[in-house]
Every structure is written in structure tokens, then in C-alpha cells.
Amino acid sequence: MVRFLGFIGGVLIQILDHVGDMLALLSSAVLWLTRSIFDPRVRMGSSAINTQIIRVGVRSVAIICLVSAAVGLILSLQMAPPLDELGQKDKLANIIGVAVLRELGPLIGAIVLTGYAGAAITAELGTMVVGEEIEALEAHALNPVRFLVVPRVFATCTCMGALGVFASIVSIAASVGVSTIVLDLPFTVYWQNLLSQVKLVDFLTGVAKALVFGLLIGVIACANGLRVTGGAAGVGAATTRTVVESVVAVVLADLVFTALFYALGLF
User: Which residue segment(s) compose the domain that 181 sits in?
Assistant: First the structure.
């Protein structure tokens, strides 16, 4: 029992230490970003930010389109038969609209972005740590958080907001297509039910979730990348850890958001 409790305590200490490092990194990134806005002597390189936005956001569009369209098709084909048995097949649009805008759009975008960009950011920063490039920056009085972390976190946060909206639109479009072509549901009926069910709060809650998901992915990826030790094996382990931690953090954040919105009566 003593060994078991010691093991549990050691795991909790490691988790708290890791979370503390990520919070410290996030606060430092926010500080540098704030200084770049209000202090004319501090500027963030627009080229670095644009490069990360293209890398994180633009290059993720194709895979997010594919996954989002597949999810929209799957949901429509799965829910149509039981709804038809109840004589409520026309309510398919109501379910798809709410589910996609509130949950699935931001969640799909976050999971895809984790595997596509989060792992790449960790591997890149980890390789720089192993190659002592981070130490070279510090030797030249260049803050790694300012020049490496801030552009990546900013890009993941902003791009995730846009990608979440884009994923929702693609999923709904795919559902409209399969419903009108395969399920014989008139487009006008689908569209009217969708507009009658979906509200502005559904869209805004989805965007808020997407922004937070992107922030979590960026901070976790950068924190794991800067903590790499052990050469190439350490880079691989950090990349795997980033994917696992990002998915868990996104799902837990989604749970917290859902409970909060439910308590506030936003559904």
C-alpha cells in the first residue's frame, strides 16, 4: 500500500509539474504578445506568424474537409433509418446542425490539427533543443518564447477558430447532399428545419471552443518540444506525448465547456 501511494503521489507531482510548466509558458507567451501590441520597441515578425498560419491552417484544410465530410455522411446515414421508423426523418437537419456546430466541428478540427500540426511543432522544437539551437538563441540574447513559441501558439489558436467553422460548414454540406440525393429528403425541408433549429449561440459556442482547443494544442506542443531530452528518442517520445496530451486536454475542455453552457442555460 505504501509503494502504491508513493507511486500515485509521484505521478501526481509529475502531472502538476508539467501543467505548471505549460502555464508558465502560456503566461510568458501572453506577456510577449501583449508587449508587442502596446510597446513600439517590441515587434513580432509578421513573416514568422504568416509562415505558421500557412503551415498550421492553410495546409490542414484538405484533410479537415475530408474528415468533416465523412463525418457528415456517416451521421446522416446512421440516423436516417431510426428517425424514419418514428416518422421524423425530416428532423435529421435539426440534429445534424446542433451536433456539428456545437461539438463535432470544433472537435474534428482539433483532433486533425493535433496530428497534423501539433506533432510537427513538437518535433521541430525538440530537434532545435537537441541541436542546441535554443541555447544559441539565448546566447545571442534572443528569447525563445518570443521568437519561437508566440508565432506557433498564435497560429494554432487563430487557425483553429477558422478551421472549426470550416469543418462545421463542410459537415453540414455533406449531410445536405446525402440527404437530398440518397435519403430523398427535400432540400427546402432540410434547410428550413436547419434554420429553425440552429441559433447564433450554437455557432458562437462552437467558435469559443475551437479557439480554446487551438490554444491548448499550441501550448502543449511547444511545452513538450522545449522539454525534449535524450536525442532522437526524446523527440519521438515528446511527439507521442503531445498527441496524447492534446487529445485528452481537448476532450476534457469540451466537457468543461458543455457543463458550463448547460449550467448557464445556453442550450
Answer: 2-264
C-beta separation of 135 from 141 below 8 A: no
What is the grid cell recorded at 173?
Answer: 454540406
Cell numbers at 107, concatenated: 472537435
Looking at the structure of the chain, the number of domains it has is 1
CA–CA separation, 174 and 181 (whole Å): 11
pTM of the prediction? Answer: 0.88
**φ/ψ of residue 191, rounded to 5:** -65, -40
Alpha carbon distance 193, 204 (integer Å): 20
What would the 3-class secondary structure string for 188-213 be? HHHHHHHHHHCCHHHHHHHHHHHHHH
Which of 69, 41, 94 has its CA nearest to residue 166? Answer: 69
User: Cell 506533432 maps to which residue?
Assistant: 119
Average pLDDT per block of 10 residues along the chain, 267 residues long = 75 79 85 78 74 85 90 89 84 88 89 87 88 81 83 90 90 90 87 88 89 92 86 85 91 90 77
Give long-range contacts, CB 8 A cutoff, 24+ apart: 50-53: 51/151, 52/151, 52/152, 52/154, 52/155, 52/156, 53/155, 53/158, 53/159
